[in-house]
Automatic annotation (TrEMBL):
Protein's UniProt name: uroporphyrinogen-III C-methyltransferase
Matching NCBIfam families: cobA_cysG_Cterm, PRK06136.1
Residues of the Tetrapyrrole methylase domain: 17-227
Family: Belongs to the precorrin methyltransferase family.
PROSITE patterns recorded: SUMT_1, SUMT_2
Organism (species): Rubellimicrobium aerolatum
Length: 273
């Protein structure tokens, strides 16, 4: 068992629910606050993308699977939220463990609202989101001053499972040099079509990162015009990154070794500001 350093760690009180981010996969990316929560919890309600090794850090807790995966039988979100209320009212210390960060496309906000509406006290423990940490493990920085001054995070589907109709793809395509799409494989064809119709080049680099930060991680590099056919042969979970920052993987792919010291065609700057 990992020993926590000396610190005034928060006490996990009975009847509370902690909404905790488990990070993108690698157990080493878990925060110390998350580890502290795991060691005190009576019950862990966990998502499908949480690595099993992380659950081993809560040896005394009951485990309740509440994973939601697209296209597969999944519990209803309302039922998950009400189950958290029920467990808390039993006087248990309830850890709701969510992949990535609970407030980044993780429905943590919805669950928190339900808990507060039912008078259940909550604590939020942020986690590293796959759209940042997962890309870093692929050697892709989400920001780089030779590439982008903005990055946009979007979801590939809405509550109905369809591509989000509320997104203004024209505005996103014009305003953001780099676009990171969560859960976008199913609707990759529409996403690519919308972006190219809005003026993005078909030759724009794209990376598809699956099982990010785990030993199963794979990265497929392609371009926007080929995204639909390449995405069709990849299994989720996956993050899509669209933008020239994908080229930096040629030098920053620290897990496999870089291939090109200057993929952007610019000299490295002497300063670090």
């Amino acid at each position: 068992m990992v020993e926590l350093p000396s610190f005034d760690w928060p006490r996990f009180l009975p009847g509370w629910v902690w909404l905790v981010g488990a990070g993108p996969g690698d157990p080493g990316l878990l925060t110390l606050h998350a580890l502290n929560a795991l060691r005190q919890a009576d019950v862990v309600v966990y998502d499908a993308l949480v690595e099993p090794a992380i659950l081993d850090w809560a040896p005394g807790a009951e485990r309740v699977h509440a994973g939601k995966r697209g296209g597969k039988p999944s519990p209803l979100q309302r039922d998950i939220s009400l189950r958290l209320v029920e467990l808390a009212r039993e006087g248990r210390r309830v850890l709701r463990l969510k992949g990535g960060d609970p407030f980044v496309f993780g429905r943590g906000g919805e669950e928190g609202q339900t808990l507060v509406a039912h008078g259940v006290p909550i604590r939020v423990v942020p986690g590293i989101s796959a759209g940042i940490g997962g890309l870093a493990y692929a050697g892709i920085p989400v920001t780089h001053r030779d590439v982008n001054q903005s990055v946009t995070f979007v979801t590939g589907h809405d509550q109905t499972g369809q591509a989000p109709s509320s997104l203004d793809w024209q505005a996103i395509a014009r305003a953001s040099e780099v676009i990171v799409v969560y859960m976008g494989l199913k609707h990759a064809a529409r996403i690519a079509a919308e972006l190219m119709a809005a003026g993005r080049e078909g030759s724009e680099p794209v990376a598809i990162v699956t099982d990010a930060t785990t030993p199963r991680q794979r990265v497929l590099e392609t371009v926007l015009a080929r995204l639909p056919e390449d995405a069709a042969r990849v299994e989720p979970p996956a993050i899509l990154c669209i933008g020239r920052n994908v080229l930096l993987r040629q030098v920053l792919d620290w897990r496999e070794g870089g291939r090109d010291a200057d993929p952007l065609g610019t000299r490295a700057r002497p300063d670090s500001a």
